[in-house]
Amino acid sequence: MDTERLIRDIVANVISKIEAGVSGNPNASSSGQVMSGKKTGAQEGSSQKKIVCGVSVRHVHLCREHVDVLFGKAYEMQVLKELYQPGTYAYKETVTVVGPRLNAIQNVRVLGPLRDRTQVELAKTDCIILGIDAPVRPSGQLSGTASAVIIGPRGAVYLKDGIIRANRHMHLCTKDAEYFGIKDNDAVDVRVAGPKGLTFNNVQVRISPDYKSEMHVDTDDGNAADIVNGTFVEIVDASCVSPISLQMADGANTPPQIPDSSFTGEITDPNILKSMNNIALDPAGKSAGLPERQSANVQKKTIITTGDLDDYKDNGIEVSENVILSPLARDEALKRGIKISYKE
Q1: b/e map of 250-264 (b: 16 or more CB within 10 Å)?
Q2: Model pTM?
Q3: What is the tally of structural domains in the chain?
Q4: What is the per-residue DSSP string for 255-317?
Q5: 239 found inside a domain
Q6: Cβ distance 277 to 294 under 8 Å?
Q7: In a domain, 260, yes or no
Q8: 135-175, pLDDT tens digit by residue?
Q9: Are strands 169-172 and 198-207 parallel, antiparallel or unpaired?
Q10: By the 8 A CB rule, do 132 and 99 touch?
Q11: Which residue of 129, 130, 163, 213 pairs with 146 in a disulfide if CB–CB is 3.0 to 4.6 A?
Q12: Rounded to an integer, what distance in angstroms lies between the CA atom of residue 309 and that of residue 11?
């Protein structure tokens, strides 16, 4: 038997059947799948053009005023590397972000260029570590968001709001937006392939001729889909999936939460505590951290940790708006029988 001729005949037969199927059904794809209804621009392009995805690790955008406080008056930020989006870059400088439980995340990268308002972008896991309930927001929408303290080498800033979890979003150049038939601020669905593949919904699209097409997810979303920087994703049409509202199980059906103390920890670094003690708010609400900027109107904060309890064993601890008692210190004080009072 002529094996080579047999293989050629089989291949020719398969190709002829595929071509007959496509010509007989205009909605049939080369893979044999039938698409019901008219394809949108996103559907037509999803199998031809893909978008690169970048994973955004927690980072900070600073305004000029806060650069002066954290790094020194008129300090010039040093560029470490350019990022994928034109005109954006990572600075060499990092800061420490402190939450209300006095848990801290150090070496949080500052990104440029400088902005009009300071903004901290975290993942949900970061928020758990810090004890912060940061809302999901588009970049720049900071009203009513979470608060935290930012510490630099020269001072500290109390950020009343500006801590967010960035929404899933995508930058598209104008040419690609026309290709997909997408308008600025549209929300699209994006599919990720692979063993942990999934579809992201509610991805905000921002369009500009200056953009390079790129989707951004935070580290939690990236880990959930096993995404690394440079993974290709597809814009798809998931409108066939019935939209559902967010629902929560009642108490009888809520799975028990697993106790986990791996995220707890109190700040013990004396340098960080020294900077924390310089945090102040003047009557106008502006932050001050540098000695030369402090004045008679500035109120300094006293932070009491477990190492300070011996100083209060006789007279007790009076907690006020200017005296911060850390959670671990409070628990240890109660064990030692140290009196704790609260001044309104």
Answers
A1: eeeeeeeeeeeeeee
A2: 0.66
A3: 2
A4: PPPPP--TT------HHHHHHHHT-EE-TT--EE-SGGG--TT-EE-EEE-GGGGGGGTTT-E
A5: no
A6: no
A7: no
A8: 999 999 999 999 999 999 999 999 999 999 999 999 999 99
A9: parallel
A10: yes
A11: 163
A12: 83
